[in-house]
Amino acid sequence: MIEELLPDSVVAVEAYGDDETDHAPLYPEERAVVARAVDKRRREFAGVRACARRAMEKLGVPPQPVLPGERGAPRWPDGLTGSMTHCDGYRAAALVRTADLASLGIDAEPHAPLPEGVLSTVALATEERHLADLDARHPGVHWDRLLFSAKESVYKAWFPLTGEWLDFAEADLEVHTAPGTARHGGFRARLLVPGPMVGGRRLGHFEGRWTVGQGLVATAVTVPHRPL
């Protein structure tokens, strides 16, 4: 799912269900990070890192530990940038050479409504009206969950460029569907705070893509070195 949302320069590796990746061995320093975690957390941690190491191999980079850095963002080998995501029954990692992209972010969520009360904490009033309109036209998609996932992808692409937190209320998303279908499309996140400098320009928005299928909603944001 994630791969179809990303340019060819990005290598994406996914795992579904109770895949063997959840039982992949960890490096000692990774084991230390989850030494006191519950079993579910340890399996997610191992599974998504197994995906990341497969992606490294596809890029010709020796597999190595992926440790959480500031605010939990993964620390990638020199010359690479990437993003990881996991939810029940799904793990994915996407990696790219820093020469090819400035940053990227991916996220996957169960294709189900957000829990009661969550939407109002993550959505602006303009976004809630936009989602209501989308729901009226395309009721088969859980647009609230898609918005949440898209904002997660935006943050994952934002943080490596800034080293700063981006609140849910600091980006205003507009989602659109692809012609003739309501199962995939794109989105634009207009930044309501000063954006990062990329390619000598200050970004005012991020562009992303989304898809729905196999019980999941997946989103991805890529930031080129020379944004349009």
- Describe the largest sheet: 5 strands, antiparallel
Please give the share of residues in helix: 25-40%
- Termini, distance in Å? 26 Å
Rg, Cα atoms, Å: 17 Å
Strand residues, percent: 25-35%
Shape: globular
Give the topology, please.
Elements: E1 11-16, H1 28-33, H2 39-58, E2 80-87, E3 90-97, E4 103-110, H3 119-122, H4 125-137, H5 143-162, E5 171-177, E6 184-191, E7 197-198, E8 201-202, E9 205-213, E10 216-223
Antiparallel strand pairs: 1-3, 2-3, 4-10, 5-6, 6-9, 7-8, 9-10
Protein described:
It is built from 5 helices and 10 strands; from the N terminus they run βααβββαααββββββ. The protein has 228 residues and is an alpha+beta fold. The strands form 3 sheets. Strands 4-10-9-6-5 form a 5-stranded antiparallel β-sheet. Strands 1-3-2 form a 3-stranded antiparallel β-sheet, covered by helices on one side. Strands 7-8 form a two-stranded antiparallel sheet. A hairpin with a 2-residue loop joins strand 7 and strand 8. It is globular and about 50 Å long. The model has no long low-confidence stretch (mean pLDDT 94).
